Amino acid sequence: HPNLSYEGSKGLVMDGTSLTDIASQHGTPCWVISADTLRHRANTLKDAFKARNLPVHCHFAVKAQDHQACLTVLAQCGFGADVVSGGELRRALAAGIKAQDIVFSGIGKTDEELELAVQHQIGQINVESVEELHRLDALARKMQRRARIAFRVNPDIDAKTHSKITTGRAEDKFGIAHDVIPALYRKTQTEMSGVELVGLAVHLGSQMVTDGPFRKGYERIASLVHTLRADGLRISDIDCGGGLGIPYRDETAPPPSMLAEVIAETLGDLDVQLHIEPGRWLAAPSGVLLARVIDVKDAARRFIIIDAGMNDLVRPAMYDSWHGILPLHTPENMEAGDVVDVVGPICESSDIFARQRHLPPLKKGDLVALLDAGAYGTVMSSTYNSRPLAAQVMIGGGKQAVIRKRQTLDELLAQEAVPDWLLHT
Ligand code: LLP
């Protein structure tokens, strides 16, 4: 983690800011996201494609991290957005991302959401089924518009990642089967006036740490392009999806230059506008979740009970995923310490952040950081167990700001109503 280091009495420092200071000022649990790291990674990714001379439009996958401040940083870096709901579309527009730079993916877009997209004339709608195609075509014709679309191809390839984040197998709900694409493509381009079909999109899954699945997927797309062009059909855009993983633990995760290389080798000669939709790679290492040790419980195991739970960061409970954990104070000796379970306060056995992990000694009141929490962290939080949403702080250029106040219990309760008729019976 090049953005994290221990600096004596300041403890763990992220891009120049002491995380202990943040936790003491704003309390815990507290998310910290670094605009500097986010920007740095965005530029690194773009440079990898520039170095290969590949014409690529980058669309940030808003689902990974949807905060307006983060979208603003990425918009400043020239990123568009990949959205999967009307809500994310509104967010992207609100952050100043131009409609033409927005791609809309997702298998269950409602009529209202499609209408919003058509109205704003967004860059591309990735159509995921024949049914959606007909719905969109009719809707756009009614609105006297022509929607720019691509077909999301289901290439029937196993991305070999966690099954809950695998999306490109035939049995997965995503995309249009690759073998029906040619006939459908012809029919769409020759008969449908509500849509302008510009190309193909593919996304195999998330947290992919080898080049194999990417290569297979793009090869399948390339061969489809050749088939379609041989049939006289027009293709100007290919959306390569997201999915580049990061090393949460000790995985060797490939750099963006690998992705650029695979894309160059498989799709580079097709003379198309390329698009990518990365989320995790950009945002995950940009964020941490700070928590305080409530108690150290010595039972059959030593449990470090912290004040963040699966309601804040659900990834370990949901995908058995590993997140690095570091104390915020500078440990006297990184090697010393205990084998512990780090757990949250929620009444579920799955509320565990680390099992039998060797950590420096931790006592009641100590602060810790859960690493790589900038993607699929805040966005998947809930208020389970009536735990208000945690505060979010952005750091950057030596400055810091609260970008989301900690939710209060009053706010939580204020959203509920008890029907009158219940009280007067
Ligand atoms: N494009 C599409 C169509 C997607 O479905 C996704 C992620 C992305 C792009 C961005 O993928 P990324 O670059 O972030 O890998 N909640 C899970 C991850 C779910 C990913 C869903 N789709 C997790 O915490 O691991």
CATH topology of the largest domain: TIM Barrel
Spell out which ligands are present. Answer: ligand LLP
Radius of gyration based on Cα positions:
23 Å
* Percent helix: 25-40%
* Major sheet: 9 strands, mixed
Number of domains: 2
Distance between the termini: 60 Å
Number of distinct beta strands: 21
- What gross morphology would you assign? globular
**Structural class by secondary-structure content:** alpha/beta
Give the CATH superfamily of the largest domain.
Answer: Alanine racemase
CATH top level of the largest domain is: Alpha Beta
Mean of residue pLDDT values: 96
Q: Please, how many helices?
A: 13
- CATH architectural grouping of the largest domain: Alpha-Beta Barrel
Proportion in β-strands? 15-25%
- List low-pLDDT spans: none
Binding site for substrate: 280, 315, 319, 348, 376
EC number: 4.1.1.20
Domain Orn/DAP/Arg decarboxylase 2 N-terminal: 37-284
Family: Belongs to the Orn/Lys/Arg decarboxylase class-II family. LysA subfamily.
Would you write up a description of this structure?
Helix 2 (35-51) runs parallel beside helix 9 (256-267), helix 5 packs across helix 6 and helix 8 (211-230) packs parallel to helix 9. It contains 13 helices and 21 strands. It has 2 domains: 4-34 and 285-414, Lyase, Ornithine Decarboxylase, Chain A, domain 1 (Beta Barrel), CATH 2.40.37.10; 35-283, Alanine racemase (TIM Barrel), CATH 3.20.20. The protein has helices spanning 19-26, 35-51, 68-76, 86-94, 111-119, 130-142, 181-191, 211-230, 256-267, 280-283, 315-319, 409-414, 420-423; strands at residues 4-6, 12-14, 17-18, 30-34, 56-61, 80-83, 102-104, 124-127, 147-154, 176-177, 195-201, 237-239, 273-276, 287-298, 302-306, 325-327, 338-343, 352-359, 367-370, 391-396, 399-404. Strands 4, 14, 15, 16, 17, 18, 19, 20 and 21 form a 9-stranded mixed sheet that branches. It has an 8-stranded parallel beta barrel with strand order 5-6-7-8-9-11-12-13, surrounded by 6 helices. Strands 1-2-3 form a 3-stranded antiparallel sheet. The N and C termini lie far apart (60 Å). It is an alpha/beta fold. Bound molecules: ligand LLP. Ligand LLP binds next to helix 10 and helix 11.
